[in-house]
Amino acid sequence: MEKILLIEDEPGLIATLSKRLESHGYDVSISRNGSDGLDEAINHWYDLVILDIMLPGMDGFDICRDLRRHKEHLPILMLTARGQTIDKVLGFKLGADDYQTKPFQMAELVARIEALLRRSNHGENLASSSSYRFADIEVNFRRAEMRRNREVVDCSAKEFQLLRHFILNKGQVLSREEILNTVWGYETVPNTRTVDVHVARLRQKIEANPGKPSHLLTVHNMGYRFDG
Ligand code: CA
In angstroms, what is the span from residue 46 Cα to ligand 1's centroid? Predict the structure, then answer.
């Protein structure tokens, strides 16, 4: 039976989550306070930690950073409020392995948990993560590196930032303007065509058939969506 530690202070969410996870056969322990949760995770064996960000005692980012120092292979899934992209980036830097945006469907969360446990059970090196895999691609956020079939793919800094932005917003339609503002910011005065050019280059690097993409999709009149 795999052991999950849930560090969360919201009673309703605790009840729903623990009930659902137990019905999937997981052994669930709960910490309602950040610093207690950190102690618990450091001092006991868990297969995975689900970590809220806003917590009494100590926030999820500090817990994540400290926990990663003690347990470099422990899968950490953070819960974040909708649209907190900046939080996701920060969390990945601090060593979280995945994110679940609140509110969420239980089925989606369970799928993420299963994927994380599969990865760690297969002995993949989570120490060098946070990484993200899809198809034959592996993206390593810490090293700012992309591999295809284990071979390093040459990527410009902007291409990498763009890919990371897509991954962090998986499944959501992103407009060209939003992408431009987030990935390019105030650095230059590019136009939305810049986004198209970089998307085309990324497709060459990640798609089996760049002319018929299956991951970096064009959403007509709206922008792009990443499915991975
Ligand atoms: Ca909370």
Answer: 21
Structural domain boundaries, residue 177? 129-226
**Interval 10-31: pLDDT, tens:** 999 999 999 999 999 999 999 9
**Dist. CA 120 → ligand 1 center (Å):** 26
Cα(163)–Cα(161) distance, rounded to whole angstroms? 5
CATH number, residue 207: 1.10.10.10
Residue predicted with more confidence, 38 or 186: 38
CA of 47 to the centre of ligand 1 (A): 22
**Do 103 and 17 fall into the same domain?**
yes
| Contact status, residue 31 vs residue 120, Cβ threshold 8 Å | no
Q: Are strands 27-31 and 3-7 parallel, antiparallel or unpaired?
A: parallel
Cβ count near 219 (within 10 Å): 11
Is 111 in the same domain as 134?
no
Residues with CB under 5 A from ligand 1 (ion): 9, 52, 54
Q: What domain count does the chain have?
A: 2
Return the pLDDT at 127.
Answer: 37
| C-alpha 80 to ligand 1 mean position (Å) | 9
Distance 227 CA to ligand 1 centre (A): 29
Say if residue 155 is in the same domain as residue 220.
Answer: yes
